[in-house]
Design a protein that fits this description.
The protein is mainly beta. It has helices at 2-16, 33-36, and strands spanning 39-49, 54-67, 70-79, 84-93, 99-102, 106-115, 118-129, 132-144, 149-158, 161-172. It contains two helices and ten strands. Strands 1-2-3-4-5-6-7-8-9-10 form a ten-stranded antiparallel barrel.
Length: 173
């Protein structure tokens, strides 16, 4: 019985496994954050809850710039309910090629890895909902399609439980 339980647990964990960012190392065009996130970008997105229903849509205007190994992404959100918000990311390229990101609503640091056309960010976001703030885990994947378009899919979870997904399409001006 213990052997069967261990086998089922292993199968369950394997089913949840996500390929690492290195899986995309041969994919083109090659993503260079300092090039793509430079200048003005627009992004359109939506948040879907656990059941897949779209709960909110949004548009983001991003002003992005770099000085050396440090980049700033100034994001201005307009939400489908008419509200607005802002997030300012500071990104720092590390000697090993990874990126560290910080923002006011990010708990600690976001860790980013780039390989081929893909970027994977992992971080905890302080998310306000109905007057309370919840710390939720983001597993954030971006894929460069061409020199103008990038697609983004983020999975949100709390204590390992799936909360929803955010989907975005970026367009570089």
């Amino acid at each position: 019985m213990k052997l069967l339980a261990a086998a089922l647990l292993s199968l369950g964990l394997a089913a949840c496994a996500t390929p690492g960012v290195e899986h995309y190392r041969a994919e083109q065009p090659r993503l260079v954050l300092e090039q793509y996130f430079s200048g003005k970008l627009d992004a359109w997105g939506m948040f879907q809850g656990r059941d897949g229903a779209v709960q909110k849509r949004f548009h983001v205007v991003i002003d992005a710039s770099w000085q050396g190994d440090t980049g700033v992404l100034d994001e201005h959100f307009t939400w489908s309910d008419g509200t607005t918000s802002r997030r300012v990311w500071t990104l720092r390229r590390q000697p090993d090629g990874r990126y560290i990101g910080t923002a006011d609503d990010v708990v600690g640091e976001a860790i980013g890895e780039v390989s081929g056309n893909a970027l994977r960010w992992r971080y905890v976001l302080a998310l306000p909902v109905d007057g309370k703030v919840y710390h939720v885990d983001f597993d954030d994947w971006m894929f460069l399609v061409d020199d103008k378009v990038m697609l983004n899919r983020s999975r949100m979870s709390k204590w390992g439980f799936h909360l929803g997904e955010v989907t975005l399409s970026f367009t570089k001006r």
